[in-house]
Every structure is written in C-alpha cells, then in structure tokens.
C-alpha cells in the first residue's frame, strides 16, 4: 500500500513544530497512560497539564532537541476517550512517536489548518484555530457523554487536544483524530458532502490532473450516486447519523460534512500492486496536488515491520525508564496488531461499511465514512456570511445556515441519497411514470 505526502524531515519548514508536537505527545500521553485507572471526574475536563522542554531536561521532563512548551488539555478525559474508541495505548504512542515521521498533507485550504498523517496512516493531526480549540474544550463534556452513550458515533474521534509554543513563536493548537480511510485499501473516490449545492462543485475538468480529488455535493448528484445500503444497514446508519446531528444542532455547530471514501471491490487494490499509483490527499479539494518527486512514499507496515515496531516500542519504553512514567501499556508489544477495529458498527466490513442490496446481501463497494470538521460554532462570522450571501440567492441553499437548519438540510440530503440499487431503480421508475 503506497501513500503519498510530503515527508516532514529535518529539512522541512515545519520540522521543529512537528518534532515538538510529537515529543509533547510522547511524554505527556505516556505520563497519563502510566497512571492507575479511575473514573473521569468533572474536574478532569478543566485540567491543563503543562510541560516545559529544553535541552537539559529534568526529573519530570526528559530532554528534547528544542526549547518549547507543551500543554495537554483534559488528558484524563482523552485517555478515556481513546479507550472508548478501543485504541491500544501502546499502539497509539507507537504510531505517532515510535519514529518521528509524519507526512504533511496539502497546505492550508480555506481554513488555514495543516494536516499531518502518522507514518502508519492511522491518525491525523490537524492544527486548529484558537476559537475551535476553545470551543472543543467548552463542549468536551457533551462530546464525551455522547461517545459514551453512542459507541458507534459517526462523529470525528478526538484522541487528544494539545498546544505547543516555541520561544517567540505563536501558540499552535492541534487535535489528534482518526483517519477515516484505511491504510490497507485503495479509496477510489472521495466525497465531502454538506447537503448544500452552492459552491459545492469540484471542477470536473480538473479531475484528469487530480483523479483522487475530494468531490462534493454537485459531483455526487451529477453522477446519480447513491449510498447503497439495504434496509437494515440504511436504518442503522441513518439512526446513528440522526443522533449525531442532534448533538451538533444542540451545540450550535454547523459547516460539518459527511466524508465518504469508496473502495470499489471490483477494482480492488490493483493500482497499488506496483506501488505506482498514489492516493493524493487534498484537504480543501481546490488546489490540485500532483505527486511530485520530492514527495515521499510511505508503505503500510508489513508483518515484519510490525515486529520491528514492537521491538522499537520495547526500546522506547526502556529508554524512558529514568523518567517516572512507567509502562505505556499492560499489553505485550509483540501483540501489537494493525488493522481495523471490527467492534465499531461502521467499521465491521474490512474497517468500513460494505454496500448492500435491498435484501442485505453484499454489493461491490465498501464505504469508509464519518462526520468531519465539526468544531465550527455558528458564530458572528457565519452570521455575516449568511447575511451577505442571503442578499443574493436562495437562503436554504447557501452553506452558512443556522445550526438547526444546517443539520436538517444535511440529514435530509443524506437520507435522500441513502438507498439500495433496487430502491433507486424503483424510485426512478416512479418518477418516470409520474
Ligand atoms: P474547511 O473549513 O475549509 O472545510 P478544514 O481545514 O476545516 O477546511 P476539513 O473540512 O476538516 O478541513 O477537512 C478537509 C479535507 O481533509 C476533507 O474534505 C477530507 O478530504 C480530509 N479529511 C479531513 N478529516 C479527515 C479524516 N478524519 N479522515 C480522512 N480524511 C480527512
Ligand atoms: Ca470542511
Ligand atoms: Ca473547517
């Protein structure tokens, strides 16, 4: 499995930031993991765990290459969230910091966020605005309770909220979250759907240059695509989506989307057999990104690599010994395993959710899907945007709607496109007859 991204190494402009992010995570998360388990308390939501790193190090903080400050927000809550999402603590740290390799994906889109993949492609680090950071802290309790009550939530899985600050530098806030797409499967098409049609079009002409671009609502409609789910799966999916959207509405959130990656089983992974074809990830979707020779290929770890990974982990834990952090996991590193977590409903089929016919028999696609970008509060900016856009055009079709309407339109759109092939054919016949 070959993926593409710009490797962040010592020569990369963001190397120091990336190094500091990973060092902070390694030290702070191991410290939290080493503690004896106990329930989450209300006070845990307000905790900020600060560490100051320098070349010398001290009893609590090991030495680092650079001077920086790191803050871990609500570490105990996130430890519990990771456990609710069934992450193995050692695996998590290993993926992110076993080797300091990240690949940076695309430069900022509209929002200005940076995206980094862990080297095994399981996790995404997204830098976020201060407003999004403050907002996540504000809603963390609601989010946590929601995840507890909804183990199959489709919302972004947040694993950590952190901040780094370099001397004289500005504060960089970031979250660690799940990569919805699997390391082991080609994603043949990607859609980012909001349920709006205004400006929701990826220029079809640009697809030639950038065949794996993230497509949008109008591209979906133009292709007469459906999210092919038979009766049972459709119901499970829409029920969960409704619950998730209800939370977003209650919290005043909008501008999120349903991200859908489609793996076509008829095509399989053939494009990767020679390691020639690359998946180009393009946040924002507007800037065509072509694979350039400076971009570094990353392979999904093989079994052998996994064993090496386990060895590295053991060394890492040993290296950490002088620091009073303890083991990062009770599980033996040798047991580390790659792959999907089938205990989550929408990951049950090879890490995704397989398309079905009306009678629930399997169809030819696997969907990897979830609700992303859910930290935008309907604030003053959106109100202004709504006002200006509202002066021209149909108000229900623009994207900056108040949260209640945004969620209703979103649900409406997604329910409208979720149907088995058989159902779609019947619907078309009925339309033709009318
Ligand atoms: P904007 O606010 O302009 O939409 P943003 O910087 O907030 O942009 P997102 O909307 O969060 O970015 O994500 C942009 C793109 O990055 C998505 O369309 C998708 O292609 C990819 N992406 C984001 N989150 C994930 C994820 N968890 N898994 C896989 N891909 C993701
Ligand atoms: Ca978005
Ligand atoms: Ca955003």
UniProtKB/TrEMBL annotation:
Boundaries of every PIPK domain copy: 11-418
Sequence ranges of Basic and acidic residues compositional bias: 424-433
GO terms, molecular function: 1-phosphatidylinositol-4-phosphate 5-kinase activity; ATP binding
Any single GO BP term: phosphatidylinositol phosphate biosynthetic process
One Gene Ontology CC term in the entry: plasma membrane
Entry keyword annotation includes Magnesium: no
Keyword field: ATP-binding, Kinase, Nucleotide-binding, Phosphoprotein, Transferase
Name the record gives this protein: 1-phosphatidylinositol-4-phosphate 5-kinase
Organism field: Immersiella caudata
């Amino acid at each position: 499995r070959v993926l593409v991204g710009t490797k962040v190494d010592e020569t990369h402009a963001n190397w120091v930031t990336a190094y500091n992010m990973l060092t902070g995570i390694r030290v702070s998360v191991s410290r939290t993991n080493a503690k004896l388990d106990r329930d989450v308390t209300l006070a845990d939501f307000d905790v900020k765990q600060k560490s100051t790193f320098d070349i010398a190090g001290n009893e609590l903080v090991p030495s680092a290459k650079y001077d920086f400050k790191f803050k871990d927000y609500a570490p105990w809550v996130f430890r519990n969230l990771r456990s609710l999402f069934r992450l193995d603590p050692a695996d998590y740290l290993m993926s992110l910091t076993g080797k300091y390799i990240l690949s940076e994906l695309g430069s900022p889109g509209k929002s200005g966020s940076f995206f980094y993949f862990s080297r095994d492609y399981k996790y995404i680090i997204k830098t976020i605005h201060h407003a999004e950071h403050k907002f996540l802290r504000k809603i963390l309790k609601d989010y946590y309770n929601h995840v507890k009550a909804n183990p199959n939530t489709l919302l972004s899985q947040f694993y950590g909220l952190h901040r780094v600050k370099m001397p004289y530098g500005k504060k960089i806030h970031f979250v660690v979250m799940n990569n919805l797409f699997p390391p082991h499967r080609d994603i043949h098409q990607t859609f980012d759907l909001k349920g709006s049609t205004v400006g929701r079009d990826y220029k079809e002409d640009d697809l030639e240059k950038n065949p794996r671009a993230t497509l949008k609502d109008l591209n979906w409609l133009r292709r007469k695509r459906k999210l092919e789910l038979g009766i049972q799966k459709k119901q499970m999916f829409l029920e969960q989506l409704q619950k998730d959207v209800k939370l977003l509405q209650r919290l005043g959130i909008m501008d999120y989307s349903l991200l859908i990656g489609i793996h076509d089983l008829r095509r399989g992974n053939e494009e990767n057999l020679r390691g020639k074809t690359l998946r180009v990830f393009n946040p924002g979707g507007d800037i065509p990104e072509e694979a350039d020779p400076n971009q570094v290929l990353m392979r999904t770890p093989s079994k052998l690599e996994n064993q090496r990974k386990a060895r590295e982990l053991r060394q890492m834990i040993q290296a950490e010994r002088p620091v009073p952090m303890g083991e990062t996991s009770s599980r033996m590193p040798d047991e580390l395993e790659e792959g999907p977590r089938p205990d989550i409903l929408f990951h049950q089929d090879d890490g995704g959710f397989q398309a079905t016919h009306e009678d629930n028999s399997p169809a030819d696609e696997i969907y990897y899907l979830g609700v992303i970008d859910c930290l935008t509060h309907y604030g003053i900016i959106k109100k202004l945007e709504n006002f200006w856009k509202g002066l021209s055009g149909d108000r229900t079709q623009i994207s900056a709607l108040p949260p209640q309407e945004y969620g209703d339109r979103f649900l409406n759109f997604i329910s409208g496109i979720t149907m088995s092939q058989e159902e779609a054919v019947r619907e078309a016949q009925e339309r033709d007859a009318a």
